[in-house]
What does this fold into?
Amino acid sequence: MIRVITLLLGLALAAVALWQLEAQRAGLEISTRTVGETPVTRTAQPGAEGPVVVVAHGFAGSRQMMQAYAHDLARAGYRVWAFDFEGHGRHPHPMSGDVDSIDGTTQRLIAQTQDVVTAATAREGWTGEVALLGHSMATDIIIRTAIEDERIGPVVAISAFSRAVTASAPDTLLLITGAWESGLRDFAREAVAMVDPGKGEGETARAGEVVRRAVVAPLAEHVAVLHSRAGRAGAVDWLDAAYGRASDISVRATGPWFMALMVAIVALAAPLARLLPRRAGPAPAPLAPGLFALVVTLPAVLAPLAAVQVEARLLPVLVADYLALHLALYGALQLALLWGAGRRPDALRPVAMLALLAWGLGVFGLALDRYGANFWPTPERLTIIAALGLGAVPFMLADAMLARGAALWQRVVTRAGFLLSLGLAVLLDTERLFFLAMIAPVILLFFVIFGLMGRWVAARAGAASAGVALGLILAWALGVSFPLFAPGGAG
It folds into this structure.
């Protein structure tokens, strides 16, 4: 009975969430195209004649992450062109150039933004000023583009930081910052104070033709700000004022419904896993405290100490080579220790393994790709996924074997040990491996979401089937998330 109730509740929650998320798209024409090799999504109402808005994402982001803003602007009558920067989303080419030089990577991304502006104005037949909206990394790009390019009008910068901002440029700038982004809120206040020292958050500063405002998105951090209703409403109002327009739209909730859909998909994995044939034997007894400490601590220390000695640069991705090696060493050490303790991987159950892959990639992954962030690899990323899989599969196999029959605190300590080992790697080679600190939250979410689904499958089919499937999913998730980068290349 509990399984039936869980299944019905999960289906009901998923259905309501899907209905709410699709309502945000209702009545819009959403199409994809390319500008050169840059993937673009155009969003507009049928027959829309409003101004053109070009939307850019942040570091390790994609067009999908910006869709809440894009959909609201389109429903307000604007014609929105959102694109993937080089190395991100489904762009086939890596970022390149010198990241420490304004004339390097930054200038290349400015040129890419200008190419999209050129294509958008030509395609739409728009001769007026083009608005730019961007998040995080993109704010520096769009602000510099606005300063360089006379075709650019109002700018909306979300979670912004840019040393290019002055008291006079850009001349029409809205800064939206999450309430929990303290440092970026300080920057937004300073940008407003440049124009009028007496103005603060929520107030519009004016000096001649320069207009500037800082808006705070309540209860939001660096990602949640992309779904903030206050931020999205502020962006529409700002552009309406800049273009002398009046929009009457209702800004709908998207973030809570996206989270509800993801929770429903994870929850549905529990009753569905119970439909698998029971092939798993009894869960093994927890490891003795001393042995458990050894299995967690030794790989956490030895893997980074060994891996940092290798500086392979075979993959066009920041720290992917290192992470694949770290995962492989960590997993191999844990498997060897478990083997010595008498624990062996159980038999693979192809049906269970494929079921977890299908649910993780085909259901959860497709929902994430449509409503949250890019989760579909380009052909160029398949090699990266395969290389990461060489490390992720043994790592997750060992993790699944440790989790099988373990108490909650042991599972938490096991995963914390790996995250701490990544921290040790950063300390050992900060300049080369700092990006690992940005990956850690992604891996933590993976443990919470996919680790839970894998545990349910392991209870029916054994740890090996769940571990191998989770290893492949982890390699996939990391492979589509990493920005591609080729230092000094031509792109």
Remarks:
- The longest strand covers residues 210-217.
- The mean pLDDT is 94.
- The two ends are 57 Å apart (CA to CA).
